[in-house]
Amino acid sequence: MKYVSTRGGMAPQSFSDILLEGLAPDGGLAVPEVLPRLSAETLAGWRGLPYADLAFEVLSLFADDIPADDLRRLTRAAYTEQIFGSEDIVPLRPLGGGLSLLGLSEGPTLAFKDMAMQFLGQVFEYVLTKRGTTLNILGATSGDTGSAAEYALRGKKGVAVFMLSPHGRMSAFQRAQMYSLQDPNIHNIAVHGVFDDCQDIVKALAGDLKFKAECRIGAVNSINWARIAAQVVYYIHGWLKATTRADQQVSFAVPSGNFGNILAGHIARRMGLPVRHLVLATNENNVLEEFFRTGVYRPRPAVQTYATSSPSMDISRASNFERFVYDLVGGDAARVAALWKELAGTGQFDLSSLRPAFASQYGFVAGASSHADRLATIRSTYDESGVLIDPHTADGVKVAQAYVEPGVPMLVLETALPAKFSDTIEEALGRRVPPPAALADLESLPQRVQILDCDAEAVKAYVRTHAAL
Ligand SMILES: *Cc1c(COP(=O)(O)O)cnc(C)c1O
């Protein structure tokens, strides 16, 4: 399998080649030249496979430049009972009313990003070792993404992580989660500033080409194709668990921000997985919901992005959306390049002429949810099924309810555990949620963090002296 750019300006490359890169050289995103197809026989043959072996089967379609024995070793190391807490890895639980919960948040940081990151950690170490090179991952986090990356890359050979976070602005649990890591290749840097300051420093350093080359700076952001590929696995796993026959359709409801999670569902559907609807759920930051309603894509600046009680969805510029638009315009890379040029010029583009195809051809429907909806949904889900859901998952459940159809299982993707967002749970139910037993002592563990001024030069100096070389 070869990968090309959504904007047409990249010679075809292998999976391992695009693994360590960010954007394509033309500013586009890497996509498979041709998608593999899943036949009914193939899907039937995968029934009953352990999750790690299903992951091997699916990922071998995308990473065919990695020898099968090696890839199988990587997926078996990534998806273990020890890391994900049960043999199932991704459990499926009924919620009542035709809904089920696909449990993607059983990993070390209690959010779905672990699903892709655990594989990414394995495959990064493998490819770096094979190529005899090293990489220093630089990132900024306000909580979730940074911790998933650190837990995936801790102790890995040839790679170090430098994660900037705003000093004093994360929850005690989030701080403990990141700062208690004692692995020498993990560097937490608390910056005197806010999250945007951290991000500005990362941008400044990544834009300094001399420094970037000298210290071999890389990223593990949401546009990484290996993350999308690893997420395709749990859509297939969910379908296998919810069905018994090859022609049975299911729908998936996905709490969305960056369009990363639901893009994997779209890929699975295009590969031939019998998916009826992909239900895209947003919070008050409804840029994507607006697109699927009107056909107009109109991202908003940071000042118009609300801080909500589902904070990991407070995103108004969906970086993975370009891959979907590429499919929507029939793989016409010149058209994608023109649309993004228009976006840069006018702040929006209009694909309303294609609107009839969104649901009929691609299965996409959408809805938005509010703070009051989240509280009511957390409460009613708990009352009716005894299952406690987090505010992001509540956005998914709320929107999913409008699209339930008889005979079509609706699988809501659980994107985080409620213990991570105990304040909102308390507001909904009047009580807090303790963290899982294994993490009960987390906040009392010794913490290791470097506090630095909000100064790109200071961060640069720190990275230089601690980089993996
Ligand atoms: C990242 C995240 C999301 C949004 O996922 P996207 O792939 O960016 O759309 C939703 N919920 C939680 C808890 C997250 O961490």
UniProtKB/TrEMBL annotation:
Signal sequence coordinates: none
Gene Ontology molecular-function annotations: threonine synthase activity
PANTHER family assigned to the protein according to its UniProt record, in alphabetical order: THREONINE SYNTHASE FAMILY MEMBER, THREONINE SYNTHASE-LIKE 2
PTM-bearing positions, type N6-(pyridoxal phosphate)lysine: 113
Cofactor field: pyridoxal 5'-phosphate
One Pfam family in the UniProt entry: THR4_C
GO biological process: threonine biosynthetic process
Family: Belongs to the threonine synthase family.
Organism: Bordetella flabilis
Domain Tryptophan synthase beta chain-like PALP stretches: 107-313
Listed name of the protein: Threonine synthase
